[in-house]
Amino acid sequence: MSSMWQATSFQVTLPVYKLDHYNFIYWGGALLSMLLSNLLLTKIINMTKSQTIETLVQVTELDKKTVNKVLDGLAAISYEAVKVDGEALIPYFGKLVKVNRKARVGRNPITGEAINIPAKTVVKFKLIKAVKNAVL
What we know:
By secondary structure, this protein is of the alpha+beta class. The protein has one domain (3-135): HU Protein, Chain A (Irregular), CATH 4.10.520. It is built from 4 helices and 7 strands, in the order ββαααβββββα. It has helices at residues 24-42, 49-60, 64-85, 129-135; strands at 12-13, 18-19, 87-90, 94-101, 104-107, 114-117, 120-127. Helix 1 crosses helix 2, helix 1 crosses helix 3 (64-85) and helix 2 packs across helix 3 (64-85). The radius of gyration is 19 Å and the shape is elongated. The termini are far apart.
């Protein structure tokens, strides 16, 4: 397993707050919320991870290494929570939810023949109402 996404014990020291894995998601969500509000003001549409980190560095005035740890930690904690509990709340944005899809019969779009699609588990992201109201 890649160490970048591994949710083990870690700590990130910010200028005022010391974050551990219990309250990490709250502060990660707060940083992402600040990013989102600035994105709406600056009209940045799509960003890579490095562009997102650079924008967060400018918005929060934190160093690049800390912002990168926050994003990686938020992802690792969220992924582990979905794996264990079936859902993970990401404050200010929404919830990752594990959903079981039933087996079904589909159609090959080229030949039109019926094919069996097996049951599987997928992860969905559900936006919170505040994001829907802000964006839509």
